[in-house]
Design goal:
The structure holds 3 protein chains of 3 kinds.
Chain A lengths: L1 H7 L16 H7 L2 H25 L3 H6 L14 H8 L9 H31 L5 H10 L6 H13 L1 E3 L2 E4 L17 H24 L3 H9 L4 H30 L2 H7 L8 H11 L4 H34 L3
Chain B lengths: L1 H33 L5 H31 L13 H8 L1 H32 L5 H9 L6 H12 L11 H8 L14 H27 L3 H9 L4 H12 L1 H17 L2 H6 L9 H11 L3 H32 L1
Chain C lengths: L17 H9 L12 H13 L25 E6 L5 H16 L2 E6 L3 H10 L6 E4 L2 H10 L7 H10 L2 H6 L1 E2 L2 E2 L2 E7 L2 E4 L1 H7 L7 H13 L3 E3 L11 H24 L8 H11 L17 H4 L7 H4 L3 E5 L8 H4 L12 E4 L10 E11 L4 H10 L2 H8 L20 H10 L5 E4 L1 H4 L2 H17 L4 H10 L5
Parallel strand pairs in C: 1-2, 1-3, 8-9, 11-12
Antiparallel strand pairs in C: 3-11, 4-5, 6-11, 7-9, 7-10
The chains are: A mainly alpha, B mainly alpha, C alpha/beta.
Chain lengths: 329, 326, 476
Amino acid sequence: MSVEAHEIIPMPQPDPHGRQESIPEAAKRKLSSPWATGLVILITVLWTIPTFGLLVTSLRPSEQAQNTGWWTIITDPTLTLDNYSQVISGGSVIPNGIAPYFFNSFAIAIPAAIFPLVIACMAAYAIAWIPFRGSTFVFFTIFALQVIPLQMSLLPLLTMFNKGWSLGPIPIFPDLNKPGTEQSIFIGTYVPLWIAHTMFALPLAIFLLHNFINQLPRELFEAARVDGASHFLIFRKLVLPLTVPAIASFAIFQFLWVWNDLLVALTFAGGTPDVAPITAYLANIKGSYGAQIHLITAGAFVAIVVPLIVFFSLQRFFVRGLLAGSVKG
Amino acid sequence: MEEVTSGLAKIGTGLAAVAIFIALLLIVFFIGARARGKLQHPAAMIVFLGPAIVLLAYGLIAPAFLTTAGSFKDATGQNWVGLANFGWIFTTPSNREVLLNTALWIIIAPLVSTALGLTLALLLDRMRRESISKSLIFMPMAISFVGAGIIWGLVYEYRDPAGAQIGLLSQIAQWIGMEDPPNWLLWQPFNNFFLMVIMIWIQVGFAMVVLSAAIKAIPGDVVEAAELDGATGWKLFSRVTIPMIRGTLIVVLTTIIIAVLKVFDIVRVMTNGNFGTQVVANEMYAQSFVQFDVGRGSALAVVLFVAVIPLIAYNVIQLRKERTIR
Amino acid sequence: MTATMRRRGAVLLVGGVAATMLLAACGSSSTTSESSAAPAESSAAPSEAASEAPSSEAAVPAGCEAYAAYTGSEGTSVTLFTSVLPPEQQRYEDAWKPFEDCTGIDIVYEGSDQFEAQLPTRIAGGNAPDLAWIPQPGLLAKLVQAGGPVPAPQGVSDNVDQYYNPAWKAYGTVDGTFYAAPNSSNMKSFVWYSPKVFAEKGYTVPTTWDEMFALSDQMVADGIKPWCGGIESGGATGWPATDWIEQIVLRQFGGDVYDQWVAHTVLFDSPEITAAMDTLAGWMKNGDYVNGGFGNVQTIATTAFQDAGSPILDAECGMLQQASFYAAQWESFKPGAVVAEDGDVFAFFLPQISDEFPNPVVGGGEFTTAFSDRPEVQAVQTYLSSAEYATARASQPGGWVSANSGVPLDTYTDAIAGLSAKYLTDPAGIFRFDASDLMPAAVGAGSFWTGMTAWFGEDAPTQEVLAEIDAAWPAS
């Protein structure tokens, strides 16, 4: 499929003559001096050291972690996994382990990465290829929505989840209470989180996917329309497959954002182990065990390890997809 | 064991939700495709654009209007107070500092991130093992603000200069001969820059990856033609490379500026806005959610929104050009 | 104010009328009423019974007699939202386990370090918890104005009338309507020190303000920084410094000025508060005295309050002014640290300044507020105000103290809890609630915190700080 995409998408392509590097050769020669390499290595090291410090601290016994800098492992190389076993399964200091929160994060982030992508993809297609009056206006409005601070949306959304919402007579969101209580059945579930994350992700997702879908060749759609294909068919058979690189890239980003979110989680999930994600756990142990730096760092590392794995294993995808739209020849 | 079982059940819930969502979509598509004749177009519009519009209307547009209205009301949101909240923002001395800090953030953090990202993209493009460096520099993007706060706490931590140091920066300062390093987060006005460093640390990877791909996508023949014309080095860079990736640069800058405007987590975690480091987004959070002054909180949100309008307008003009080209 | 840690503590233990009130509170009619006369036993009995199979609905299961008044809501659940985080959470859950087993009501506990921001949001969004522990009377009043809290049922009111000092009922009352009974309380007028270091150096615990400063000078001469402090507390940074100024105002000017200060009839920018700030400047802002183990005066602003006491164990710092709940911190600095008069660390009462105002005590606490009047919510709310609950909770480890006079004094095995009680029950003493918790949020959770933080961290001029705090006081 990706081969097909390359043939179709009119974005700047690598040189057909098989020359891989496309950068100005002269600039390249000038800049590819040893000190350029050295500079990159220096920045790489600078960028990595803080995280490395976190990892090292999380592996040190409490006494050392609290009283000496992590770099002293060079002279005092005592490392332990105790901090991790305490954080993961609970221990004398932190009775509750991180495990339930860890799984919650997955249960929140997987749907919250997929829902907005699909909806945004459909919207982007409509804006780009279904002719209607005001499509430009709709597109720019959605673009501008990116700047609305999501803090301002928390309250109206919370109200919707609890009391329902209908657009005139049309019920958009049901007002269902648990039997015998005034509590909505959605409270204490992942549903509000999925919906909230979907809403907040849409403006950027639509913007980027539109840039991508907009660049698909016009002839493709015209030919399909002439053959009598409906928008639904075109979307499923043509657009979706061609957009996979862009969708994949944005899905990874969205997964990372949702995984790392704290504010939305606090508002819609609270801190119970039933639904709260790992960031809420981390914020809580940071609030209650400020002095336990060895445990906080271990918890923090558990929390970032999944994003790091996702990131390192899938990074090839996002680069290509995310860019396709924004790169103009 | 029990934990794992219940954990898998949770993940199962998530996957089931995705399955239901896809199934619903397929049904809607099936029904939508039945539409014939005049109904075809509206059916497609409703199915494709409807969900996004409804979600955005409720989740973002309505709150934006409510917030704007709230900015003209008092702390309880009951009484109209005209421009009093804006008067408070622009006349209180402490708020002037907040506005100035925010302006510094908007200018410095995105520019440095983008410039550094561009430099790295250029340098990396001609390195052998670029992927390792690229991955490591991009890595902070995958770390939450809570995590970043903990990580950078270990860098800026201050201890009595006479004793053992825990903060890396103080230790380095001592190694290079600074006997009495300052308390970094208190050191005005530089503490603002120490906080920006965290944002830059997170954003450079993003800028680098996107710009790197844009540079790679410049057609080789364009470059060759320029070289035949005698363009080299800096000239080639400024006359060919930059114009070719201009669109990408704008997108990168815009994205980072918007991220910077909304950033409250870093400030909240590191200094809570004390010591002259307050920014609008965090003040807004404090006013709305800690001091319960909905009016002032809303007014600050409106200020943020208005501040981005020129940026949005510029982008819209650019996009308009591109759309007409199509 | 209130950071998550500000809780627990001391009490107005008036006397051990334990036996009768237990019966009254629980309305028990059972055959074991004789044995429940001893509260310690009665709190133990239900937990034993819990493991036994409950009998049929008609009869109250053995051991559950004390909870008979709360039955009738089997299979329901009640949510409780608090700022109290683990490890405290577990001790609460252990304490009310028998209640849950006997009544079939599940108490769903949720603690958050963003409690103060989250609670109003949830109420406004229609997702109020059933119950919340609100640490600030000021916040309670604010919520009542906005609508949300429901008045306490008669059972709670009766319990509070019976077991609590009227002052505590007043803090849970807004505009004449009683809403919330206290849960725990804490005693803030403590100074922590290391008995080991004191014994080694031959120091004695000071009993007057002047002695305390003579001791401080002695420590300086011995090469020990006498004081350490930390006021960093995330979104609530600054609150420990507000506590310091409250201590001084109460000691220097007494309860009346303190009350007028809370009501803003005595301004921050007044001679009294300025004088109190000057006193504080000679103490916690004195470069010779602070900040032991951390560095200069400014480090007070960036040191986490949780970390502040750690140098005391290493003899790098002599003393720390902090509340009774700080007892829980020492274990984290040094596993196995003993909090006792002859242990690793202990606390003495922050001495009075003037004989005119004897034994001034600043304290805090949190209040069980209901947002629903469902029968099971009222049952839990009533139970949480009972002497039986307070006794069960107080017998858990961790130095928790209730202001409930129905808790027998010997329930408190913890030395700090006992000491808290001693000062709080002093009939000649002056007790006042944490002033910042009583002030409007714009000040008590806003300018007062940031002002004190700037005063320490940026060395902002006193008059400027006080004027700015005043300026933020909402026009009424």
